[in-house]
Amino acid sequence: MKLDIQGHSGCDIAIVHEDNELFIHKSTHDAGYVPRLVNQANKQIAASRIEYQNIRVPKIFDVAQSDTSAVIKMEYIYSRNFIEHFEQAGFEQIKYLIGAIKYFIDLEIANSKMQTVPSSILTDKMADVARKVEKNIHLKDDDEAQELVRQSTVVMNGVGDMVMPVGMCHGDLTFSNILFNGNNYYLIDFLDSFIESPLLDIVKIRQDTAYLWSTLMYHKPFDKVRLSIISEKIDTAIDEYFTGKYEWYRKYYMPLQLMNFLRILQYGKEDKVIAYLKRVIAGQLAIINQPKTA
User: Fold this and answer.
1) Is 261 exposed, middle or buried (0-12, 13-18, 19+ CB in 10 A)?
2) Per-residue DSSP letters for 219-233?
3) Which of 45, 75, 105 is the last residue of a domain?
4) Using one digit for the tens of pLDDT, what is the confidence trace for 204-225?
5) What is the chain's percent helix, strand, coil content, to nearest 5?
6) Residue 279: C-alpha distances to residues 68, 139, 275 (Å)
7) 278, 279, 288: which is closest to 256 by C-alpha?
8) What is the pLDDT of residues 98-142, one digit of tens each?
9) How far apart are the first and last CA of the chain?
10) Same-domain pairing of 31 and 151
11) Does the residue 3 lie in any domain?
């Protein structure tokens, strides 16, 4: 049985029956992806040992790997995906979700340390993105994409050293990686990030609340107006909350969100996804480059 929502990593995800129980098997037969999937599993195992309010992490029972494949055996959670949840959720449930997201990220912040992230981390990552976009057969002759990368390079070169909390980070905190069970939320698909900072988790959740990224991977009919209204409500609450509390969020959210979408663009294949990414990146650059008021 396949799950409704698939990511872009190329992994296979299936519900399997073993000994009269249900489990999730996530697997890859891409030798290059094996270490990444195993690292994801280890990060999820570590997170499952921490107690969060209303946030849970499914247990991983086994990690089987070889040089060419890996299979992760994970606890099956009866749940809804984000679209099914939002189609039925009332005001109180949305409010509850907002509170759970704030609590989770604040706990990450409390367990992280303020550190200086050298400017080279961002500029080197930007250079890597530029190389991959140049080599991508779907993008190398795309003048618009190449110009967006050029403008983004200027932005990243101007950010400088960043002082922010570093330590705890889910790494891919999007709606497609949250399983919804009433007012309990299960986080899956932990991912290593180029900066292990809670700020990157705010970036990723707003990838959905502000930009509706995960809807591109959903292929069933749904109420787009309702989802947009709910997403905007969640996004406004998250943005206002962290804007009011943390200077590092106010200073570095936009360049890191720009980098987030550039890192997705570098692997772009589908015309629909590439067009979406170019539109979002162009909009972000317009905001970043607008004249600052006194």
Assistant:
1) buried
2) -S---HHHHHHHHHH
3) 75
4) 999 999 999 999 988 899 999 9
5) 50, 15, 30
6) 37, 14, 6
7) 288
8) 999 999 999 999 999 999 999 999 999 999 999 999 999 999 999
9) 58
10) no
11) no
